[in-house]
Amino acid sequence: MSYENLAELKALYNDKKNLIPQETLKSYLKAFSIEYTHNSTAIEGNTLTLIQTKTVIEDGISVGGKMLREIYEVVNHEKAFKYVRKCIEENKELDENIIKDIHAITMENITTGGIYRNVDVYISGAQHTPPSPNEMYRQIKMFYYDLSSNTLDPIELAAWTHAEFVKIHPFTDGNGRTSRLIMNYQLMKNGYLPISIDKKDRLSYYEALEEYAVNNNLMLFADMIATLEEQQLQRCVDMTQDMTPEIQNFEQQQNM
C-alpha cells in the first residue's frame, strides 16, 4: 500500500472511529497495550508469556520462576507507553527530554536510565557497530536536530526515528524498547495508530534495521511499518462494518 492510500485509510478510520462503541475501543486498546508490551520485551529476550504479561500488568501479580528484571521490564514498558500517550494528548513534539524520560521509565529498578553511555558497545550478530562515545555524542545531537527539522512522510519519519536512534545506540541498555516507543510516538503524533512488531518477526525486523544501518536504505523497514499500520487501521475500520444503523445512530448520539 502506498503512503497516500495509507493516509486515506487513516482518514477513513478517523471519520468512523466515533461509531465504535467506547467499551469495544477501550478493551481493544487495552489488549493492544499488553500485546505490544509482551512483543517489545520478548524481542529483547524477556521470557514472560502473553498471559503472564497480562497477569503482571492488569492484576499486579508477580510470576513465579521469573527473574525480577523480567517483571520490571514489562511493568516499566507499560508505564512508558502510558507516558507516551500522555505526551501525545498534551500535543508535545518528540524531543531529547521526552526520549530520556521514556528511557528512564523503561529502565526503572533495573539500572539508571536517561543517561548516555560513555563506553563502547557491540551488537551480537550485527554487521554494524555503534559509534564510540565521542562520535555517539555528535551523532545523537545531529539526530535531535534532524528530528526537529524533518520533512519525511509520517510513516518514513517513524521508521527513520527508530532506525537512526537504534543505529546510534546512545544507551548501554534499553535502546530497542525505547526506539520502538519513539517510533509509535511519531505515528500517534501524526494521527496514526501505534503498532506492535511481533516477536515471531524478529529476524525480518532485525534484517530491515541492519539494511538501514549498513546501507542507509530505509525502505525495507518503512514498508514493514506501513504494512503493520495498514493492518491496525483496517482492523479498527472493520469494527464499524457490522454495526446496524440503529446502533450507529445510538453511538453517534452518545458521542455528541
* Spans where pLDDT lies below 50 across 5 or more residues: 244-256
Continuous helix count: 11
Major sheet details: none
- CATH superfamily caption: Fido-like domain
Number of domains: 1
How many beta-strand runs? 0
Order of helices and strands: HHHHHHHHHHH
Strand content: under 5%
- CATH class equals Mainly Alpha
Name given to the CATH architecture: Orthogonal Bundle
Tell me what you see in this structure.
There is one protein chain. This protein has 256 residues and is mainly alpha-helical. The protein has one domain (3-116, 128-249): Fic-like fold, CATH 1.10.3290.10. Helices cover 66% and strands 0% of the residues. The chain is built from 11 helices and no strands. Helix 4 (68-89) runs antiparallel to helix 5 (96-106) and helix 7 crosses helix 10 (219-238). The longest helix is centred in the first third of the chain and has 22 residues, at 22-43. The two termini are 33 Å apart. Mean pLDDT is 92; it is low at 244-256.
Give a quick precis of the structure.
This protein is an all-alpha fold and 256 residues long. The model is unreliable at 244-256 (pLDDT under 50). It is built from eleven helices and no strands.
Secondary structure layout plus pairing:
Layout: H1 3-16, H2 22-43, H3 50-59, H4 68-89, H5 96-106, H6 133-148, H7 154-168, H8 175-189, H9 202-215, H10 219-238, H11 245-254
Q: What key phrases describe this protein's structure?
A:
mainly alpha, single chain, globular, Fic-like fold, 256 residues
